[in-house]
Amino acid sequence: MNTLTIDIRRAEPADAEAVAEVHDTAWRGAYVGIIPYSALNRMVGRRGPRWWANAIRRSATVLVLEIGGEIAGYATLGRNRARELPQEGEIYELYLRPEYQGIGLGKRLFSAAREMLVTHGLDGLVVWALEDNDPALSFYTGAGGRDVAEGVEVFDNKALRKLAFVWD
Ligand SMILES: CC(C)(COP(=O)(O)OP(=O)(O)OC[C@H]1O[C@@H](n2cnc3c(N)ncnc32)[C@H](O)[C@@H]1OP(=O)(O)O)[C@@H](O)C(=O)NCCC(=O)NCCS
Question: How many whole angstroms from 134 Cα to the centroid of ligand 1?
């Protein structure tokens, strides 16, 4: 039997291509049918390997989850952007390739991202999710998040509600 090693670590510029690929598949998997197709296409198109290499270098913190040598998911995190919420940290994005979802890896990546926020001295955490993204809402509720605020994100002409989950 082969044993697959799971490693969660900070992304390096050499990971940019793989992260761009995960971003593309995971976003299409999560948002086709929710975000209008052309808007989704544009958002994915903007975030190619060069965009990711830059993001990784600029140290917006990017974590990757590597399994058996393949990048299966990523998370980005940093300071909370919503001034009306007192939590200091935020997980901006948490995405896994569809074939790696539902087997506990999201939970591990979320914990690692949370620990990294603590390491950065950021107290409390916010995550935003689109209200139509049922799996994400179940995931964050299951992880003990409280949904405390809502907002609206407009994609082309379609307004979608989003919810903020917090952990103190
Ligand atoms: C959301 C996401 C990160 C969750 O990671 P995951 O690895 O699939 O979730 P896990 O297997 O770690 O599951 C953790 C818990 O969440 C629950 N959960 C996960 N996916 C779920 C789903 N689709 N429906 C209901 N519950 C779900 C599980 O029941 C599990 O609870 P348990 O520990 O009591 O069994 C992952 O599915 C993903 O990348 N989805 C697409 C992108 C996305 O929506 N990202 C979030 C954007 S805000």
Answer: 10
